[in-house]
Amino acid sequence: MPDAPGLLVGEGRTLYANPAPLLVSRQAVFPGLARLADGTLLALFSIGQAFESADMRAHASRSEDGGATWSDPVPLHGAGALESESLKPVVLPSGRVLATGYAFRRPDAHTPIVDPVTNETLPLVNRLCHSDDGGRSWSAPRAFSVEGAPLELSGPAILLPSGRLIAAAAPFHLGATGHEGWLIASDDEGETWRRLSVFFRASGGAVAPWECRLCHLGAGRVAVLFWAFDAARGCNLDNHLALSEDGGESFGPVIGTGIAAQASGLAALGPDRLLTLHAHREHPVSLTARILRLADGRVETVAEAPLFTGGPATETGEGARGQFASLRFGQPGLLLLGPGRALAYCWRVDACQHVIAAWPLEFAETG
Fold first, then answer.
1. Which residues of 182-220 are buried (b: 16+ CB within 10 A; e: fewer)?
2. What CATH code is carried by the domain that includes residue 248?
3. Is the dihedral of CA 254, 257, 263, 267 positive or negative?
4. pTM of the entire structure?
């Protein structure tokens, strides 16, 4: 087991893999996990014929034993128009589970999401649905819009003590400029959403804040961690962290973490400590967990441990499109299970199959 002082990674397990790969193609990606009031774990992830197939639909699976075993996944809704869908769950105070995310609408099964010549993307629509029985059944998905922007809601919304829901996302496109990160909010359990603030915009709008993840650190403090991609130069920057002291109404200067990674996940361990998970897709390749401390406008790594290492690095010669086309693992996430315990997860390619993988983590509560 890889470990570091204050951070221990348990044996990896497969949350979902195609049970009949010689008969059908069932590729699983884009996981999100939540813990229900009774301790049941709920996972949402997308299953389709291929990574960008036009039949990629959100499915739900449940675990009654802390993530050791999982039920067979079932789709959240019946098949409809051709699309590629991703939804993530959050548990509301009433016990209702809200799922938010997006779908790319597909004109046919063979048109890619990103045009290989123009870098234009297919239409993206934000959508939500809810479950009143712990994720066993779901309402029909419906579209919602925030100022007409196609938001890359790839991570879950979070609940503030006030009952307000917030989520972080970038209006998604692959242009060289015009990028920024939005914090959106709902005060009616996700029925309607509005833009609350802009948490990041680089000079000239050339840096895209992708794969945003956020957490509440107590009082009014909110942190947003994101993959920073310099679209003008076509290169990855280190993960960036935006901090708010007023519940996301405004943000101070964005902090460079010094961690050269792309997609990431995070969870709060206190007012100035974060548990994070980083996808390092450029050499040296790894998925690495860290405990970070925030102090004096900077980020200090307290402990780190890889969940896995090695594998092919991301192809970066074709900019953003080249990176997306060569991904081998992604959308890492963290679910706190109790004092000093968490479950880390991601999708990854294993034996030519896209699977959902998970690892138990143990960590020191202070330090």
1. bbbbbeebbeebeebbebbbbeeebbbbbbbbbbbbeee
2. 2.120.10.10
3. negative
4. 0.95
Which tokens go with 17? 């893999």
- CA angle 53–33–257, rounded 5-degree value: 90
How many domains, in total, are found in the chain?
A: 1
List strands edge to edge, sheet with 165-169.
Answer: 158-159, 165-169, 181-186, 194-200
Nearest to 224 by CA among 178, 280, 167: 167
Identify whether the C-beta of residue 353 lies closer than 8 Å to the C-beta of residue 17: yes
Spatial CA neighbour of 207 closest among 235, 242, 183? 235
Domain that holds residue 143: 3-363
Give one DSSP letter per residue of 352-366, joined into a string: TEEEEEEEEEEE-S-
Three-state secondary-structure class, residue 295: strand
The answer to whether 220 and 228 are in contact (CB under 8 A) is: no
Cross-strand partners of 329: 348
Distance (Å, whole) CA 251 – CA 245: 7
Task: Locate 302 and state its tokens.
Answer: 């307290």
- Tens digit of each residue's pLDDT (9 = 90 or more) over 225-267: 999 999 999 999 999 999 999 999 999 999 999 999 999 999 9
* Cα–Cα distance for residue pair 319/335, rounded to 1 Å: 31
Structure token pair of residue 254:
């964005």
Residue type, 303: A
CA distances from 13 to 17, 58, 236, 356 (A): 11, 21, 30, 9
Q: Which pair of tokens denotes residue 351?
A: 């034996």
Q: What is the pLDDT of residues 315-364, one digit of tens each?
A: 555 556 556 667 899 999 999 999 999 999 999 999 999 999 999 999 98
Q: How far, in Å, CA of 160 to CA of 185, rounded?
A: 10
